[in-house]
Task: structure prediction
Amino acid sequence: MPKTKPSLDKLKHPNSRKTISLAKKMIKSEKKNQNKLGTHIKNNLIGEKIMWFKERVPPDCTFLNKEQTLDLIQTYLSRFDEELEQIAIKNSVGQRKSRQHASREDIIKITKEREVGEFESCGLEMPDLMNPQQMEVLKNWNGELRFLQHFKLKRISRKMLQD
Result:
């Protein structure tokens, strides 16, 4: 008579070797999925930042000098100013004591403070627009996240651009 595998309906003892092995495999796969998700989120943020720069770089330019780069970064750092003004107008109109859109306003302020702090101290991570090869890569980029590895990201600070 052929042997049949035991049915899955049978419960295994919680301290058995097979159960411990299954638990380890499940934990390992969960951690792997969490790391994948974190990587995707990080790549998405970097992709959005690079796409913002791509949309604002002059099309006929082969590379940017320090003054043009500084102006572009200033524009990047002030990209949320209009939205903050709109939120301030909405909060000033009406008789409400609580703030409307408070969470969005807080997120924008925190992001802006962090980016300005980075730019003033260690530098803002962005594509190297002062390098002609990197500028060519940026112009040929179609927005796919899998091609982010072709970019050479550089930390650019205010001190570096003003020297």
Remarks:
- The mean pLDDT is 89.
- The helical segments are 17-56, 66-77, 81-92, 102-120, 132-140, 158-162.
- Residues 17-56 form the longest helix (40 residues).
